[in-house]
Amino acid sequence: MSNLLAFPMYAVDRGETRALWLAVQHLLAARGVPVGGAPGWPESDLLAHWQQPELILSQTCGYPLVTQLPEVQVVGCFHYTAAGCEGSQYRSFLVVREEDRHLTLADFRGRRAVCNSEDSQSGYNALRKKVAPLIVDGPFFSQTSFSGSHRQSLIDVQRGKSDIAAIDCVTWALLERHEPERLAGLAAFDR
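Predicted structure:
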């Protein structure tokens, strides 16, 4: 079986993801390493994808990398040029509906948060860290739900199902470029 190659983390635009996949495939082939797989999202869940013995190169969020993937070896880190990125570092944006953009984070006490998943640094842990100093007695948010993706978190905020979400700046920039309707009526009010 050939070595698997995939870039699942920011597969917003199929053309761009495919171009990246083909460029890396070409570089590996030039070094005698044949690859297979698919440019974007793997068929299986991500944790299973990252643990496939045939996997030669992929992308992972930093949190599952350090907490659930001890057998995975880091070979590099992308340096994105999206607003909020500085070298290999990035930020999450706190996103709310446009009409709430004037509020402060403290104003969201008792409101509903949505996160992509519990193993997400940018969508869950970043939000937890940001609200931690504001917690006095009991939970800060009245409800915290998990949507399964940054895209779905944005939809939940747009539709009023949730009031706030943390979205990584690379996802935000890619959606701004390729799917601006995902950001309609939303505002990033804090980092």
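Summary: The chain is about 30% helix and 15% strand.
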